[in-house]
Every structure is written in C-alpha cells, then in structure tokens.
Amino acid sequence: MNSVDMTMTQEEAAEATVMETMINVTKKIRAAERFELASRLLKKAQDPEQFMLSLNRILRGSLLDNAVLGFSAVAGVSMGALFGRLTRGVKSIGPVPAIAVLGLLGVIPGALMNETVTVRNTLSLGGLMFTTGAVLQKLMVP
C-alpha cells in the first residue's frame, strides 16, 4: 500500500468520525430540547387550564411556523409554474408534465426526515405545490 492510499483511508476515517460526532451532538441537542419542553409542560400540569393553553399553542404552531408554511406553498407553486413554462416542449403524461416529478424531491425527504413537524411539512408542502404549479401551467397554457 502506498502513502497516497493510506492518506485517503485516514481522511475517510476522519470524515466518518466527524459525521458520527455531528449526528450524536444533534441527537443530544434534540433530546435536551424535548426534555426542556416536557419539563415546562409538567410544571404547568399543576394548573390544567394553563397546561391546555400551552398544549394548544404547541399544536397550532407559532406565527413563524405558519408563515414558513405559507411561503413554502407560494414558492412551490411559483417554481412549479416557472419550470413548467420553461419545459413546455417536454413530453407529459396526460395533463401532468414530466417536470412535475421533481416535486417528489421535497415530498420524499419531508416524509422520511426525523425533524420537527414544521420542517417536514415545509418540505412536503413545497414539493406538492411544485407539482401543482407545473400541472396548472400545463392546463392553463397548452
């Protein structure tokens, strides 16, 4: 084995170690955030009304969460329509242009990620709206 091969092996090992460390740190941060949230909710559990208010606030999402979802929807439709317009000559399957398949690039990771509901919904909604925009472009401008 020459020194170049050995260096590559060491670099690959270092990259794997860094990735494993980042994954472990991310898991610890998420666990700490969940623990902190659970602690706050348990403190409010003494007062059932306050607990229900906090729980409803979490379930509804914040104003920022809702704004991000709205932006994702608008951006998805806009980009889908734009790409549909740019690829007008590309074959389609009935009313669905081939470019609409790119919407799956947001839907699949959104469904499979281990992230917050907002992140997952943002990706999935953006992907679905991309497909919708591409289909609407095809239907409105034949």
Description:
The protein is an all-alpha fold. The chain is built from 5 helices and 2 strands, in the order H-H-H-E-E-H-H. The chain has 2 domains: 1-60; 62-142. The chain has helices at residues 3-44, 48-60, 63-86, 104-112, 117-140; strands at residues 92-93, 96-97. The chain has a two-stranded antiparallel sheet. The longest helix has 42 residues, at 3-44. The radius of gyration is 23 Å and the shape is flat. It starts with a helix and ends with a helix. The relative contact order is 0.11. Mean pLDDT is 82; it is low at 1-6.
Kindly state the mean pLDDT as a whole number? 82
Provide the low-confidence segments as ranges.
Answer: 1-6
Give, in spatial order, the strands making up the sheet with the most strands: 1-2
Total helices: the number is: 5
Number of DSSP strands?
2
In brief, what are we looking at here?
The protein has helices spanning 3-44, 48-60, 63-86, 104-112, 117-140, and strands at residues 92-93, 96-97. It is mainly alpha-helical and 142 residues long.
